[in-house]
Amino acid sequence: MRNFDYHRPADMSAAIDAARAEGAEILAGGTLMVDLMKIGVREPDALVDITGLADLEGHDIGMDRIRFGALARMADVADDQTLKTAAPVLTESLWKAASPQLRQAARLGGNILQQTRCPYFRDTAYSQCNKRAPGSGCAALDGGKTNLHAILGGSDDCVAMYPGDWAQALIAFDAEVHTQGPGGTRTISFADLHVMPGDTPQIETILEPGEIVKHITVPVIPALKASHYLKARDRESYAFASASAAVGLEMEGETVRDVRIGLGGVAAVPWRARQAEEHLKGKSLTEETARETGRIAFADASPLEGSEYKIKLGADVVAGALMTAHARSQGGE
Amino acid sequence: MPKTPGPPHLGLSRRSLLGTSGAVGAGLGLAGSADAQQTGPELAAFNTAQITLNVNGKRRTLNVEPRTTLVEALRDDMGLTGTKIGCNQGQCGACTVLLNGRRMNSCLILAITADGAEVVTIEGLADPAGRLHPMQEAFAEHDAFQCGYCTPGQILSAIGCIDEGHAKSAAEIREYMSGNLCRCGAYPNIVAAIESVRDGQEG
After folding, report:
1. Domain of A249: which CATH number?
2. Test the B interface: residue of A2, A3, A6 with most B CBs within 10 Å
3. Which residue does chain B place closest to A58, by CA atoms?
4. Which of B67, B166, B178 sits opposite A4 (nearest CB)?
5. Greatest extent of chain A over all pairs of C-alpha atoms, in Å
6. Which of A85, A119, A235, B32, by CA, is between 20 and 30 Å from B183?
7. Shortest alpha-carbon distance between residue A81 and chain B (Å)
8. What is the structure's pLDDT at B24?
9. How sure is the predictor about A333, in pLDDT bands with cuts at 50, 70 and 90?
10. Are B67 and A1 within 8 A, CB to CB?
């Protein structure tokens, strides 16, 4: 690993000042940053360790909104029994991610900003990667293996998949990200945080240099209670999603009044299946309508060689997640 | 079990001297000396910082580069080679230690960020009389290893698994031990060892 400067500011303004410098990167749990630095994918001149900013710790569940500090640990939030009852999708999408040790170290702010695990992005032996080295090409699209790549939201320059789980619940439930940077504070709709790759895949979010995520809020709505995160993967635990769905339902008698669907393991950015949501609203929830909804969620998918399986699997996962959410809306499991 | 990290005392730091070839050359093989202009464990000459760790109940002070990982500090600087490096990418769990009571992959923790922290490694589990920790006893009793390379990490992780309350069933143990790989495939015996310690604590 190339060496670097290390700063551990004691307050937010010092953190912003240090983080806005060219070549500086923010460090929290470090589970991905340190990994990427070891393999030479990231080579910052300086790391700004923000774990001394106590205001960014913890989470709390209010009547109207749930607030997650950017420094809250995945493991602590995943184990919150009150949150598990109030919003199962927000705990399930955490404990089904990574490994227990990684969840003890990793913080939520870093979790939502995690970078792709595209094997060509991670392996500097491949000179072609538009995300890592803009303009160099894409080794995946140039005859590489594309079975782990995005079938939604990719471009001719980059088909890297956004790998996170929790983000799918956040986008489905209209989360907001509260930041502070050189220009002051702002609130960003979670759906606007990540940027589609287009022809600038090196730009992944709208965050500006020195802008620090302080906390994330999720409005409390009825569909949160009857929610579920279903994750299909190559092995039973500790793997990225082959396809996953973060869903929630609000029923009015037999009719779907509100439905939320986020898709993981399939898209270039956190993905909300709005067309599928609209299709299901006002209908009853049966296996048949759940399966239809799943198929609609992937109607616009563009499979790459080797990733066709994600369309069928993804539709099944959406349907299965909806069935569980429906059972929960009826007071089940 | 403490749930918050200890309070490291690093203030704003800066790199000094590094980048001039003379300084780098002169620094080879030398631990950094404190810059008279700075106080506390800031980055000093040759880009090292002094940190203090409480390792297995002993206070240890050492000089580290920012890029030194905790497992490197434990093994190379302190001679505690019980903690193993497997993948060195946070995937296999061989480097698992308890950091402020939490199980973590020490290969992904920069030592400088752990300043002031309490670390427990496999060397710190036996009591002063040399009696093994119940989890160590259980691993031996249940033959929960073959080659033994993953075992220190498995044992520290297993202690964390029970402390966190995630050992209620064999299925839950398997889920919450998924960050520790065993290429010998001793998994059934590892689960049995953890169950026996859990049941011993309940009794």
Report:
1. 3.30.390.50
2. A6
3. B4
4. B67
5. 61
6. A119
7. 12
8. 34
9. low
10. yes
Whether residues A101 and B69 touch (CB distance < 8 A) is answered with no
* Interchain contact, B178 vs A76, CB within 8 Å: no
Candidate from B96, B109, B174 with C-beta closest to A30: B109
Which chain A residue has its CA at the smallest distance from B93's CA? Answer: A101
Which of A287-291, B7-11, B100-104 comes out lowest in average pLDDT? Answer: B7-11
Question: Is the CB of residue A9 less than 8 Å from the CB of residue A2?
Answer: no
Residue A235: predicted pLDDT: 92
pLDDT at B25: 32
Q: Hey, what domains does chain B have and what are their CATH numbers?
A: 21-124 (3.10.20.30), 134-202 (1.10.150.120)
pLDDT, tens digit, for every residue of A36-94?
Answer: 999 999 999 999 999 999 999 999 999 999 999 999 999 999 999 999 999 999 999 99
Which chain A residues contact residue B43 at CB under 8 A? 5-6
CB proximity under 8 Å: A 98-127 to B: 98-102, 104-105
Structural domain boundaries, residue A31: 5-52
Query: Is residue A151 assigned to a domain?
Result: no
Domain count, chain A: 2
ipTM of the complex: 0.96
Q: Rounded to whole angstroms, how far apart are CA atoms B76 and B78?
A: 6
Q: Are A177 and A192 in contact (CB under 8 A)?
A: no
Structure tokens at A260: 């939320």
- Indicate the length of chain B as a whole number: 203
Dump the DSSP string for A241-281.
Answer: -SEEEEEEEEEETTEEEEEEEEEESSBSS-EE-HHHHHHHT
**Per-residue buried b or exposed e for A274-309, using 16+ beta carbons within 10 Å of the residue's own CB:** eebbebbeebebeeebbbbbbbbbbeebebbeebee
Q: What is the mean pLDDT of residues A192-207?
A: 98
Tell me, yes or no, whether A280 lies in a domain.
Answer: yes
Residue A253 one-letter amino acid? G
Count interface pairs A-B at CB distance under 8 A.
115
Model pTM score: 0.91
We report the CATH number of the domain holding residue A46 as 3.30.43.10
Q: Where do we find the tokens 């393991």? A: A265
**For residue A308, is it within any domain?**
yes
Mean pLDDT of B118-140: 97
Q: What is the least distance, in Å, from the CA of B164 to any CA of chain A?
A: 9
Residue A298 lies in a domain: yes
Contact A41/B at CB under 8 A? no
Res B20 pLDDT > 60: no
A256 contacts chain B (CB < 8 A): no
